[in-house]
Amino acid sequence: MTDTSSTDRLLQSAWPFASPPRRIVFKLGSNLLSNGNGSLDEELIRSFARQGSVLIHKGCRIIVVTSGAVAAGMSALRLTERPTTLPELQSLAAVGQTRLMAAWSSAFAEHGIITGQVLLTRDDLEDRHRYLNARYTLETLLRENVVPVVNENDTVATDELSFGDNDLLSAIIASTLDADLLAILTDIDGLFTDHPTKNSAAELISVVERVTDEIESLAAGPGSKVGKGGMLTKVRAARHANGFGIAAVIANGRMGHIAEAVHAGDFRGTLFLPERSRKGARGRVRWISTRSVRGRVIVDDGACSAIVAGGRSLLSVGITTVEGGFEKGDVIAVHDRTGNEIARGIASFSSDQIERIKGCKAKEIPGLLGHQPGYDEVVHRDNLHLVKKSGE
C-alpha cells in the first residue's frame, strides 16, 4: 500500500509480529458478503479466495468463518427484508447454506485448494467431548492443507445459543486452534470514536492496547437489516481473542487485497493488541471460555486478590454469596464485592453445597457436607479463566 496515513503508520509500528503470522482466522460477516441488492457477493468471495491462495502458498494456514447463509437464502427466495422469527431464519439458512458453501468451494477450487465445511452451534462447543472433536477435525483439515469454512449451524441454533453474527464464534475458533491472528472483515474500516456515517468528524482508532468498558461503549450500536451483530460483538470477539494472547484486527473487507495486507500488517483498520502471555496450551481454559455461565458466586477482597494477583484457587472461605442453581461441573462466574466479574471456572461443588460451606475454612467442609469430598477448592486454579487481570 503506497498511500499510508499517520493512522496507518501507528498501526504498523504497533504490529506485534516480527514475521508474518502463520495461522489466521478470517471472519467475513453478512454485511460484507451481501452486495447492494441483498444477494450473495460471489465476486468478493472469489477475490478473497485468490488472496487466500497466495497466503497458503506462502505457508500461512487460514480458517474462514463465514456468515451469509441467511443472506443467500433471502436472495434465493427474493426477500428484501430479514425475517424476525426463528423458523423463518432457520428456513432461509437451510436454503442459503448450500449456495454459500458452493460459492466458497468453487472459488478456492479455481486455485487448486480444497475446502471443508464445518457447521457448529454454541452447544457443540460447550460439551467437552464435542468441543475436542471439533478441534481435532479442524486441526486435521489444516494438516491436510484443506481450508476449513466454518459457519454457525443456523438451521438448528436457537437465539440463546447464537454466537452473534459469528463474531464470537470466530474468536472461539481462533483460541481453539491457537491462531496467531483473528481478522474480522466487515463493511467499515474499523472502530471509530463515533459512528462515522452520523458524525463526519469521527476518527478511526488504529490501535487498541486493551479493550475496556469505554472502548466497548464506543462500539455500542445497532446492526443492520442483513447481519445480526454490530461493532460491539466484533470488539468483544477481539477482547476474547486478546485474552488468549491472540492479536485481532477489524478492517474493511472491500479494500483491495485486504487479506494479503492483513497478513503483511500493512492495512487501514483497528488493531487490538494481545496480552503478552499466550494461554493456548491450556485446552481446558479455552473450553471454559466457550461455555454458558450457570450461576455465580461473590467473593470478598481477600479472595479476589488471591485469584487475580496470586493465581490461586477459589476457596470456600472467601465466598460471601451464591446465586443461581448449578451442579458440580458447571461453569460459574466469580464476581468481586462490587459486582465485577473477575473469573469463571468449573465448580467442584453444587450451588446447594457451596451455600452450606461459604465463608468456612477447608477443614470444616467434611462436617458441613456430611462426607469427605477429597478436595478443598470450590474452583481449582487449573479450571479458572481470568476475566479481570492483575493491575486492572
Which tags fit this structure?
alpha/beta, eight-stranded mixed β-sheet, 15 strands, Archaeosine Trna-guanine Transglycosylase, Chain: A, domain 4, Carbamate kinase, five-stranded mixed β-sheet, 2 domains, globular, 15 helices, 392 residues
Characterize the main sheet: 8 strands, mixed
Radius of gyration: 22 Å
CATH topology of the largest domain: Carbamate kinase
Overall spatial form:
globular
Strand order of the largest sheet: 3-4-2-1-5-7-8-6
According to CATH, what is the class of the largest domain? Alpha Beta
What is the domain tally?
2
Please count the helical segments: 15
Structural class: alpha/beta
What is the CATH superfamily label of the largest domain? Acetylglutamate kinase-like
Mean pLDDT level: 86
Q: H/E series, N to C?
A: HEHHEHHEHHEHEEHHEHEHEHEEEEHHEE
The CATH architecture term of the largest domain is 3-Layer(aba) Sandwich
What would you call the quaternary organization? Answer: single chain
Helix content: 25-40%
